[in-house]
Design goal:
The complex is a heterodimer.
Chain A: H1 2-23, H2 26-31, H3 33-44, E1 52-59, E2 64-70, H4 72-95, H5 103-122, H6 126-144, H7 151-182, H8 196-212, H9 221-224, H10 230-239, H11 243-256, H12 260-283, H13 287-308, H14 311-342, H15 353-356, H16 358-372, H17 378-392, H18 395-424, H19 437-455, H20 457-471, H21 488-508, H22 518-541, H23 546-561, H24 579-597, H25 601-622, H26 625-646, H27 658-683, H28 692-701, H29 708-716, H30 718-749
Antiparallel strand pairs in A: 1-2
Helix pairs in contact in A: 1-3, 1-5, 3-4, 4-5, 4-10, 4-14, 4-19, 4-20, 5-6, 6-7, 7-8, 8-11, 8-12, 10-14, 11-13, 12-13, 12-18, 13-14, 13-18, 14-16, 14-17, 14-19, 14-20, 16-18, 16-19, 17-18, 17-21, 18-21, 19-20, 23-27, 24-25, 25-26, 29-30
Chain B: H1 3-20, H2 25-46, H3 67-98, H4 107-117, H5 122-127
Helix pairs in contact in B: 1-2, 2-3
């Protein structure tokens, strides 16, 4: 079923890539079909055990396999990814008016993203996870840069790609270290690890998660990515892709939470993002940016809770994950509808929308209250559980997490109220274009989801509890409560709501300036630096001189041989088997050196012949008459060919600079030494006597010939020899074609 | 392993590499040929000691040289012969077209290097 769904996604993707132009806007509806099916499948698997698995082994010995495992948590994520995916496709159908260009391309990329995200949440092998992780980065880049003619859009897309793909590299390094320490590549089999390598790996994995989930200081790509079409912002940058980092922290948590650096890093990223994101959301004046900064803050909350890793914190994180996908998705879609119908999303230019857009207003209030954590909504349950989990901690951790969660909650309530007042509050009525149902229904569905989940909290708990059990390593997990009782957590919640509401309402109508995007400029400046460094490197190493390329390659290969120096064993080296070999060796090298000194082409050709004949003599001494014969024939042909090809040229070779020649001599000499080292090291490891007797018997008995070498060539590996003949025939054709073309050019020129 | 032949292999490789990094196509062909020699000698040297020709019935199997690397070497000689001839044909054509046998710089690479090191608006100039 898992592979079936993936193949269906890919097939529809290909279909849209092929027919997207003809289908136009309709391709968005076609694209909604595969997510709809996988959402149904995910819903059927909610809370189910045992998990569904599928794998496809590629290279058995290397542990290279596509491995998927859909457990209770992955089923919840499937429902989020595909369920919201369907709504996004429908919404995009309304968002792009009839006749909008490139909707086919948009649908294809959006479905490709949806597929990658599904693969990511289903992956069990860390390498499968890594591949899909990178695919989400790439498809996100394409979706952010959908309006590819705008330079601001291109800069934002580049920023998103560089930060998330750079994080992907960090992830690869971290996974190598962690899987090396844990001795498995399956996430489901990861046992708690420790040690230096595992610690470094865990920190790298956490950094990768922070880049993907836009944690401070990697956050500037997320507000920047708000130049994307709203369906993309709602889907990728609120509900799914930015959750990839959170998902990674969640699934790696049981194995890595014992490492204190993992927890420390996670809390630092998380709490910093809660505070900085919340402040950003209070200061910006573009409704979409307010939501984006709020997402940074909420993601910080999720990273914090998953890093804490106690069963209560994990349960809170899982319920917040679901609640956030519902309310933030809804709010983004509402802002998109306002953007389309009012032509602006700047809060200073919006007014009176509560009356003119009643459905959107109702949905925004529902979603906003869920975000603020007010009853009776899913966000309230999540926030109560989070505060309770923070109160259960002890030591310094309790202070950091407690202040982070409670302070973050105040900020969240404040920016929610400010958002609602500023966008829908009083003011001169903004003129609107007519209503489109495809735009108003999806956010309403998501917003109602928050209250519906509260109403059927027993069922939600039955679904989320197994997921939390899975993510806290099988520990006992408490249940979600609709009404927590008169506890400290409830009192704190009430105070948070009151303070936050006062701050938010006070800030709501105030005029002001959006803060300057310093962090974004720094990010872009560092990316510019990386790109400039890349350009300078390319200009230096890709200079176009073929001899320098060759010298570089030879030098690198020589360096690679140095480790074998230690493996040379003098016991296996003999001077020579007959003294004549020494003489011939000296003669061969002598002929070769002479070949460099001779400065006419004819003389060089003759010296080459001399070297070849010496090699033939080496074969004779070695006991290889067939080789000697072949070598003599070949050498004669090459010398003749050489004279034919170069005989007419000016007689002496061109001079080259002394310094360059010194470099060439050095590298060439070292290259020769490297070959000697490699061969000498290889001879120190003999594998036994050659099977001459067996080959002799086989050659007479089966091959019907007494010359063993000939029987090997024509019988034992006759097919190879046939291939060799084909190579020679091809060469002959090529040589003939080149020679003929030459003649033709000459005759036409004369 | 036979040290004399080992040193010969090293010497042939060194001279071959030196010639291969030259700008003159005729010297590149010479260098390529010498590298081919070094390789075939390396193959039979790695195959074991010298001995009688491996012809069944003429000598006892334990006195024979190893036939397997010889078969591989024969293939190597023939293939490098084919490639050398092809190189020679290319060189001859180059001579006809340019009147010389010098390897020019890769113009495409040079253009990229020039563009990449230019400080202003690189994206646009790459696109054009």
């Amino acid at each position: 079923m898992i592979f079936g769904l993936l193949v269906l996604h890919i097939a529809v993707c290909l279909l849209l890539a092929y027919a997207g132009r003809r289908l136009g806007r309709g391709s968005l509806l076609v694209g909604a079909v595969p997510p709809a099916l996988s959402a149904l499948w995910g819903a059927a698997r909610l809370g189910a055990s045992p998990p569904a698995t599928a794998d496809l082994t590629w290279v058995r010995g290397l542990d290279l396999a596509m491995t998927f495992r859909v457990d209770a948590f992955a089923a919840v994520m499937t429902l989020i990814v595909s369920g919201i995916g369907v709504l996004i496709f429908v919404y995009a159908f309304g968002y792009f008016g009839p006749g909008t260009a490139h909707t086919g391309r948009f649908a294809t990329t959006l479905l490709a993203f949806s597929t990658s995200m599904l693969g990511l949440v289903w992956a069990d092998s860390v390498w499968t996870l890594f591949v899909f992780w990178e695919l989400t980065s790439v498809t996100s880049f394409l979706l952010v840069g959908h309006k590819s003619t705008d330079t601001e859009v291109l800069a934002a897309a580049r920023r998103a790609l560089m930060v998330t793909a750079g994080g992907g590299l960090v992830l690869l390094a971290g996974l190598l270290l962690v899987t090396g320490a844990a001795d498995t590549t399956l996430i489901s089999e990861l046992a708690p690890v420790d040690g230096t390598a595992a610690t470094v790996g865990a920190v790298l994995v956490m950094i990768a998660a922070a880049t993907k989930s836009a944690q401070v200081p990697f956050h500037p790509w997320l507000p920047g990515a708000m130049v994307a079409p709203t369906p993309v912002s709602a889907y990728l940058h609120a509900a799914t892709m930015v959750k990839a980092g959170v998902v990674l922290v969640a699934v790696a948590g049981p194995a890595l939470s014992g490492i204190s650096a993992w927890k420390g890093c996670g809390l630092a990223f998380g709490v910093a993002s809660i505070v900085w994101g919340g402040l950003g959301a209070l200061r910006h004046r573009d409704a979409k940016l307010i939501l984006a900064w709020g997402t940074v803050s909420q993601l910080g909350m999720l990273i914090t809770l998953f890093s804490v890793g106690t069963p209560a914190a994990v349960l809170a994180a899982v319920s917040l994950l679901v609640a956030h996908a519902l309310f933030k998705g809804a709010l983004f879609l509402i802002v998109g509808e306002i953007d389309v119908r009012a032509g602006t999303r700047h809060i200073d230019e919006l007014g009176g929308l509560a009356r003119s857009m009643p459905v959107a207003f109702a949905a925004a209030v529902l979603a906003g209250l869920s975000m603020a954590g007010a009853p009776p909504l899913l966000g309230f349950v999540a926030k109560e559980t989070a505060i309770k989990a923070a109160l259960e901690l002890t030591g310094p951790e309790a202070w950091v997490v407690g202040l982070g969660v409670i302070g973050g909650s105040v900020l969240t309530v404040a920016y929610t109220f400010r958002f609602l007042v500023a966008v829908f509050g009083p003011g001169p009525e903004t003129p609107l274009s007519p209503r489109r149902h495809a735009l108003s229904v999806p956010p309403a569905v998501l917003a109602v989801g928050g209250i519906a989940a509260f109403a059927v909290l027993g069922w939600v708990d039955a679904v989320l509890e197994p997921a939390a059990v899975r993510l806290s390593g099988g520990a006992e997990v408490e249940h979600l409560h609709r009404w927590p009782g008169l506890e400290p957590a409830l009192a704190i919640s009430a105070v948070v709501l009151v303070i936050g509401a006062i701050v938010g309402l006070a800030l709501g109508g105030r005029p002001g300036q959006a803060p300057a995007d310093h962090a974004g400029r720094w990010t872009d400046a560092s990316i510019d630096g990386i790109v400039a460094f890349g350009r300078a490197t390319v200009a230096r190493v890709q200079h176009g001189s073929l001899p320098v390329y060759l010298v570089t390659m030879a030098a690198v290969a020589t360096l690679a041989a140095t480790p074998f120096l230690a493996d040379i064993s003098l016991d296996h080296l003999v001077g020579w088997h007959t003294p004549l070999q020494g003489v011939l060796a000296a003669a061969a090298v002598g002929a070769a050196v002479a070949l460099c000194w001779v400065d006419t082409r004819l003389g060089a050709g003759l010296a080459l012949g001399a070297a070849g004949i010496t090699v033939a003599a080496v074969f004779v001494i070695h006991g290889a008459p067939d080789l000697a014969l072949t070598q003599l024939l070949v050498e004669a042909a090459i010398v003749v060919g050489f004279v034919l090809a170069f005989g007419h040229l000016s007689r002496s070779f061109p001079m080259t600079g002394l310094r360059w020649r010194a470099v060439r001599i050095t590298v060439a000499g070292l290259g020769g030494v490297a070959v000697v080292i490699g061969l000498g090291a290889a001879s120190g490891n003999p594998v036994g006597a050659p099977p001459v007797a067996e080959l002799a018997a086989a050659s007479v008995g089966e091959g019907g010939g007494s010359n063993i070498v000939n029987v090997i060539l024509t019988d034992i590996r006759g097919l190879d020899t046939l291939g060799e003949v084909l190579v020679l025939a091809t060469v002959a054709l090529g040589v003939q074609a080149l020679a003929r073309a030459t003649v033709g050019t000459e005759s036409s020129a004369s | 392993m036979n040290t004399a032949l080992l040193l010969a292999i090293g010497g042939l490789t060194a001279v071959g590499l030196y010639l291969l990094t030259s700008r003159s196509l005729s010297r590149i062909v010479l260098g390529y040929s010498l590298l081919g020699h070094a390789t075939v000698v390396a193959l039979i040297t790695a195959g074991g000691r010298a001995g009688w020709p491996p012809i069944a019935g003429r000598a006892a199997p334990e006195d024979m040289s190893n036939p397997l690397p010889q078969a591989l070497t024969l293939t190597a000689i023939v293939i490098s012969f084919g490639l050398t001839l092809f190189l020679l044909a290319l060189a001859r054509r180059q001579r006809t077209l340019s009147g010389d046998d010098l390897v020019e710089d890769d113009l495409e690479d040079r253009r990229i290097a020039a563009v990449e090191s230019a400080p202003t608006e690189p994206e646009d100039s790459v696109a054009t």
